[in-house]
Design goal:
The chain is mainly alpha-helical. The chain folds into two domains: 40 residues, no CATH class; 79 residues, no CATH class. Helices cover 65% and strands 0% of the residues.
Length: 128
C-alpha cells in the first residue's frame, strides 16, 4: 500500500493497494485506493486493464464476501448482472467468470467434481 501512496498517479500501484487493503479488512483505505484508481482510468487504461475495470464494479461484492455478508453480496451480483448485456465481449467474459466464482464463494453453486477438466483449467482462479 505504501507504494501507491508514493506513486498516487500509478494505476497499477493503486489497483494492487485496493486488493491488499481489502484483503486485510481495511475497507476504508481500500475504497480510497479504489477511488484513486478509478480516477486514473482513461480509455487507454480501460483497454489495457479490462479485468480491473470489471473488478472495480464487483468491489462491493468482494467486500460483502470478506465481511461474511452473503445476502448483500448476492443482491449486488444480481443488480450488476442486469447490466451484463451492456458490457463489451471481453468484459462479459471477465464478469461471468468473476460472478461465477463469487456465487461459488457464497455457496450458491457447487464446485466441479475432482478430476473435472474445467476444475483444472486455471489453477489461479479464486472465489470471490
Amino acid at each position: 500500500m505504501g507504494y501507491a501512496d508514493l506513486r498516487p498517479n500509478d494505476f497499477r500501484m493503486n489497483v494492487e493497494a485496493v486488493g491488499a487493503a481489502a484483503g486485510s479488512g481495511d475497507f476504508v483505505n481500500a475504497r480510497r485506493y479504489l477511488d484513486r484508481a478509478r480516477a486514473l482510468i482513461t480509455p487507454e487504461i480501460g483497454k489495457l486493464f479490462p479485468g480491473e475495470d470489471t473488478e472495480f464494479k464487483l468491489f462491493p461484492v468482494h467486500e460483502a464476501w470478506l465481511k461474511d455478508d452473503p445476502k448483500s453480496g448476492i443482491e449486488e451480483l444480481s443488480r450488476l448482472g442486469q447490466t451484463f448485456e451492456l458490457l463489451d465481449p471481453i468484459r462479459q467474459e471477465i464478469f461471468a467468470q468473476r460472478a461465477g466464482l463469487c456465487y461459488l464463494g457464497f455457496g450458491k453453486v457447487k464446485p466441479p467434481k475432482h478430476g473435472s477438466k474445467r476444475s483444472a483449467t486455471n489453477p489461479r482462479l479464486r472465489t470471490c
